[in-house]
Amino acid sequence: MKLKTDQFGEVEFQEEKIISFENGILGFEELKRFLLISEDEGIFYWLTSVDQPEIVFPLFPINLLMENYKQNEGYEPFGIVKLDKDPANITINLKAPIYINHEDKNGFQKIIDSEAYPVDYQLFVKN
Amino acid sequence: MLVLTRKQGEKIRIGNDIVITVVGINDNQVKIGIEAPSDVKILREEIYSKVKEHTVQATKMSKIHLDLDKLKLNKINKEK
User: Fold this and answer.
1) pLDDT one-digit tens code per residue, A54-98
2) How far is A106 from chain B (nearest CA, A)?
3) Residue A80's closest CA among A41, A47, A31?
4) Are residues B72 and A6, on separate chains, in Cβ contact within 8 Å?
5) Which residues of chain A are within 8 Å of residue B52 when distances are taken between CB atoms?
6) Cβ <8 Å between B73 and A122
7) Considering the entire predicted model, what is its pTM?
8) Which are the contacts of B65, defined by CB distance < 8 A and separation ≥ 6?
9) Which one of B50, B51, B68, B72 makes the best mutation probe of the A interface by having the most chain A beta carbons within 10 Å?
10) How many CB atoms lie within 10 A of CB B74?
11) Which residue of chain A is at minimal alpha-carbon distance from B65?
């Protein structure tokens, strides 16, 4: 199958790579099928809608950011990242993680109703 | 909008399987109990709006170049 993306041009993939989000993602409930695109030298993943390829969620693996984040067996937690030209303004959503099961190709979003997990956590600091 | 008046301990039933209970009333706060099937999403409105706004904004940004030598992850260490 082929997908035309703004960022990566035409992406070719096999149908079994499609990750299904039965309940969608908050605000985008109608989109159920996604492709997780990664780059060799990038730190982000790009969760791209198969049916509406202009909709792309930049993701970052939360396990690289903190230990003891809410786990879900078999699933890897990712946070949706809001990018910005100024790295200090790049934020990750820790309150509404995206869980992906890479083997079953299944994903879902969860909302953690706790003040410990902000919606817009600053992802980078100056080195 | 349907507006109903209820006293503490009284309930409202929505459809066949959702029951709302006024658990407590205190000055300008109301404590509400909700019984609903597990597939029904229940969220405080302000959290829903905040999450949605961040997500919508996230889809509007495209790839950027990051100078990773000058940045480090803002790691979260769980406090003891």
Assistant:
1) 999 999 999 999 988 999 999 999 999 999 999 999 999 999 999
2) 17
3) A47
4) no
5) 26-27
6) no
7) 0.89
8) none
9) B51
10) 16
11) A85
Contacts of B73 in chain A (CB under 8 A): 64-65, 123-125
For chain A, the structural domain boundaries read 2-122
Q: Which of A122, A119, A111, A100 is nearest to B75 (CA)?
A: A122
CATH number listed for the domain at residues A2-122? 2.30.290.10
Domain boundaries in chain B? 11-60
pLDDT tens-place string over residues B17-74: 999 999 999 999 999 999 999 888 899 999 999 999 999 999 998 777 888 888 999 9
- CA dist A119 and A100 (Å) reads 19
